Please model this.
Amino acid sequence: MTITNFTKGVLYATTAYFVWGLLPLYWKLLIAIEPMHILSFRILLSLTLVSIILISKKNFKWLAALKDRKKRWLLILTAILICTNWGLYIWAVNSGNTLATSLGYYITPIFTICLGLLFFRERLRPLQWVAVSLALTGVTLITILSGKLPWVSLVLAFTFGIYGLLKKKVSLSALESLGAETILSVPVSILLLNFSFSGAAPVFTGFNGLAYLSGIPHYNWIILAFSGLFTMLPLYLFAQATKLLPLSAVGFCQFLSPTLTFFLSVFIFGEPFSRNQFYVFLIIWAAVIIYIISLRQQKH
Model:
């Protein structure tokens, strides 16, 4: 029995989003390490793994792209955006705000619609207008009910949405782009390792501030060593899925990740989930369902 390209694409996409959705479990295992230090190691280990793979394939396109001034600046911007996204995500999970990350990634595709409207003058279908309106209503409602902007959710949606927008202008594969972005992020990762983030404000300590790492359990180092793999693997699977699936199918699969994260935050991590938050998520879920329906209509 042969497996169709569509089936392969669905397997790639669901596996990628399954890994992304369960990443909070992975970051929780590293809670003994400061989030910004986890980010630093993630950058360095991702670069190591990706560069080994690309160089072994004699692929130097990602390095050549850095010589092009326009591409270099675009890659610097994407590196800043993805590092901000990664860092905030890790901090949010390990500070008890996993639910906010789930909301952020539910909002992201709706935010992407708005970017298409602003930058590409795309025309929205009636259902897409409804989805955007509902998402804005949900964000407004949670702001009013909590008395503050859901900044974690909004920054995650903003950084990932703009990241995706800029990636369209860089003609590199997922792994090539990851290699270029992480090599540009090395100075930032080294700088972060020179600061302690355990207090109210960052304190410059030099590498002496990493002394606390000698006291963490040995298994933490083993777990941390896989951060490069857990960064690269879903990106690779996602890139393969986009080659085999229509937009509507990818659009449907992408909501697996925040849904898994939602269940982890409420049922595994025991984060508080109030009635008001339930109402907000109902509105966002309605926006998501309408968005998926609009994608299916767009396909036809």
